[in-house]
Write a structure and sequence with these properties.
Layout: H1 2-21, E1 26-35, H2 42-45, E2 56-62, E3 68-73, E4 89-94, E5 98-102, E6 108-117
């Protein structure tokens, strides 16, 4: 009996540990996509490979807390379709200054956050 209880405790602890280290992807709604106007902040421009490429502002709202983010998306040459994603749901991983999500082809992309608005519950 003690062996069964010990095994159960170890399994529960392993499950809790695995959950605490997992990424916290959450559902978000794409509110709009528009061509970026104005200068790109220096902190973001320094990390870009090609600052002369076309850039787009992608607005999203998290479904969990209604927080809104404006992201700066720079599509690789020859990739299209993201302009038509308004109204679609995506799973996103929000970090301190970036958001990771999948593009329309299912490839994982990480984009910088231009601005954010705290959620209203």
């Amino acid at each position: 009996m003690k062996r069964v209880v010990s095994l159960l405790v170890v399994c529960v602890a392993a499950l809790l540990f695995a959950q605490s280290n997992s990424s916290k992807y959450q559902p978000a709604l794409i509110l709009g996509v528009k061509e970026h106007q104005g200068p790109i902040p220096d902190s973001i421009r320094e990390k870009m490979k090609d600052s002369s490429a076309a850039h787009y502002d992608v607005s999203i709202r998290l479904k969990s807390n209604n927080a809104e983010y404006v992201l700066l998306y720079t599509p690789p040459p020859g990739r299209y379709g993201f302009q038509f994603t308004k109204g679609m749901d995506r799973l996103v991983l929000v970090e301190s200054d970036t958001v990771t999500m999948n593009d329309v082809a299912g490839r994982s992309i990480t984009v910088p956050i231009l601005s954010q608005t705290p959620g209203r519950q």
